[in-house]
Specification:
mainly beta; 13% helix; 1 helix; 131 residues; 3-stranded antiparallel β-sheet; single chain
Amino acid sequence: MRRILIGTLAISLVGLMACNPFGPDQSVMLEVDGLNVPSSIGPGSSLTVGMSVQTGGCLIFDHIAVLRRGSSANFVALGRNTAKGRPNVTCPAFVRSDVHTYTLDPPFESPFTVTVRSESLPPLSATVTVQ
């Protein structure tokens, strides 16, 4: 019984060290430098949105957040900056773009506007015709 208790305590401590609730919030909005959507879709079709998200150095992709309203959807790529709140951390000086996709389910109003926002780059926008 004592071994089980010690094992459970050790696993709990490792879990707390991996996710420090008192550590700095490393969440950041990532830059998106490309947007790919079809120019038109059928009325019952899904819409797949492709985004080129910049990562590298200390920036790591986490997920895509979307706010959908009527005839539009706004996207943001979110990630973590592993150097944020950690002095004396040096990040490699390389940047790369990885394509991440997000699929929206119907129904869609026509025209449907897709907008991707970034921290410092201008928003990217595209219009999809539903026919």
